[in-house]
Design a protein that fits this description.
It is a single chain. About 80% of the residues lie in helices and about 0% in strands. It is mainly alpha-helical and about 130 residues long. Helix 2 packs across helix 5. The longest helix is centred in the last third of the chain and has 24 residues. It starts with a helix and ends in a 12-residue tail after the last helix. The mean pLDDT is about 85.
């Protein structure tokens, strides 16, 4: 895992862009979760995606839970905003964009990514000489 984190750290700008793009993309096309998580396979893929994003954020952001949460919240909101612009004027706007769906997605998605980020930086041993200061 340390080799992966070193690789991410060496290409920090690229992985920062890709990770934030993935977060916004998910905010756009997986909203609302209730329509996309229908069986065990969907949940499994969703959790694996969140674990992957959390791991990438370990290599990008050094031990800062607040920054991880706020960045994921920001880019999730951007993704939901893009989804709203795409569906503007359609029937699905009234179905998908109710307060419960929006709050559920905005709370669960960034919080779960932040949780896995926390687990990676606290529980799994990471080499101390990881280049996370650059």
């Amino acid at each position: 895992m340390n080799k992966l984190l070193d690789y991410v750290q060496e290409r920090k700008k690229l992985f920062w862009f890709l990770t934030m793009f993935f977060i916004a993309f998910t905010g756009c096309f997986m909203f609302p979760l209730s329509k996309y998580l229908n069986n065990f396979t969907d949940y499994f893929i969703y959790v694996m995606y969140i674990i992957y994003i959390g791991l990438l954020l370990v290599g990008i952001i050094k031990n800062n839970l607040i920054a991880v949460y706020l960045l994921t919240l920001l880019f999730t909101t951007v993704g939901i905003g893009i989804r709203y612009l795409i569906e503007y004027g359609e029937v699905f706007v009234s179905e998908n964009f109710n307060l419960l769906n929006i709050l559920t997605f905005i709370i669960i998605y960034p919080a779960s990514i932040t949780l896995y980020y926390y687990l990676f930086i606290k529980i799994i041993p990471v080499k101390k000489d990881l280049k996370t200061d650059k």
